[in-house]
Amino acid sequence: MLSLPDSWVWDFWTAELATDAGPEFHLFFLYASKALHDPDRRHVRASVGHAVSPDLVEWERVADALVHGQPGDFDQTATWTGSVVADPAGGWRMFYTGMTQLPGGQLVQRIGAATSDDLLTWFKVPENPVITADPRWYETIVETDGQVSGEEAWRDPFVYADPSGAGWHMLVTARSSSGPVDDRGVIAHATSPDLRTWTAHPPVTRPESGFLHLEVAQVAEVDGRHVLLFDCLGTELTGSHPGRGGVWYLPLDGPVPDPDRPWDAAAARRLTDEQLYVGKIVDGPAGRPVLMAFHNTAPDGSFGGVISDPMALRWEGDRLVADPPAGIDWDLSAG
């Protein structure tokens, strides 16, 4: 478990480095000082921390990976969630969310990139941001007669290679430009031939699927079966999914989005309740996929703010099952 005595920790992503001594796991995580007193204030104070582990359990904190930019930068307020991939051209490439808070409080989110030769020292690329919300399909901030409306949710990039070798896919938390305002949550899609130039496409899920936001999406494989993971709290459920939130999953026929057949987020099930949040499937040291998440609620009901130990995963028929950490019992009932 990763716990910082003076800071809350929440969203995270991982990378694995092969060494002579075995796998070395790198954990990148959002954190903010507990001197804020109120954990709800953490989002506009987030930096990207970094820790290393041989087993996903014992972590050694190292130098931070990223901090927010200068006034006028796309990430001038905070740096948010992302993902890391090995660059075929050499080194590593991190895609992350840059956030700017407007004077009226609205949060404009865009996707940036940073590079590293060793996973330890990171440099933001000069082309940032590398992709923004395309208003043809996605909701963006609109200013009319000095009044700002709408939302610009464009965060949590998850980047993965096309199995055919034909480039890269990016999944993004976004909102549709159409549909009921409280039910526009979608997972956006972009592609790249080289991790540098990105093209936006229509979303891979439909609006009106029951979610205000589908956060921190991931495509992974468990025992030869592909699955989409995303997250939504109960306070952001609408329509077909009233009640409790948590980590959600949807079995997939394959990892590549089909533009003619959007993934049916309305059919997603909960993998955990919202005691944990931002579930990530990680290939563990034993070669088995495991689930990690951050503790959203502590035993006393306060914000947890620590990252869990790995949890075993398995299929029971068509249902994906995670073994909860000690002291936690899932409540996966509806309502």
From TrEMBL:
Example GO molecular function: hydrolase activity, acting on glycosyl bonds
Annotated keywords: Glycosidase, Hydrolase
Keyword Amino-acid biosynthesis belongs to the record: no
One Pfam family it belongs to: Glyco_hydro_32N
Glycosyl hydrolase family 32 N-terminal domain segment(s): 24-229
InterPro entries per UniProt: GH32_Enzymes, Glyco_hydro_32_N, Glyco_hydro_beta-prop_sf
PANTHER family per UniProt: BETA-FRUCTOSIDASE
Family membership noted in the UniProt record: Belongs to the glycosyl hydrolase 32 family.
Protein name as catalogued: Glycosyl hydrolase family 32
Organism of derivation: Nakamurella flava
